[in-house]
Amino acid sequence: MNHLKQIAQELIDKEEGFVVAKVLETSGSTPRKSGAMLLVSQDGRQYGTVGGGQLEAEVIKASLEVLKTKESKVYHYVIDSSLQDSLDMICGGDVDISIEYIDKRNA
Fold this sequence. Notes:
Helices cover 27% and strands 33% of the residues. With 107 residues, it is α+β, with helices and mostly antiparallel strands. The protein has one domain. It has a 5-stranded antiparallel sheet with strand order 3-2-1-5-4, with helices on both faces. The protein is elongated, with a radius of gyration of 14 Å. The two termini are 16 Å apart.
């Protein structure tokens, strides 16, 4: 956590926007629990994790979109390979993840 705070402060000092994806709530089996965070910088570098695999790939994809629009959002992911409209992971749970755009103005 302190490592992410340090990176965030360095990006703010450089006046570079970034996003922080944070696991807000989980139910069932999920790769990470509430509070797990992933920081994505403007150049696509990633720090931390929200769980890896397809979930993390989808969160990174959404994070890059939030970096473009600068509009924070909350996403709901179903993680169950047996369901048609879910991520193809065997965990079997649900997870809500906020993706917040941060820059010098709202730090």
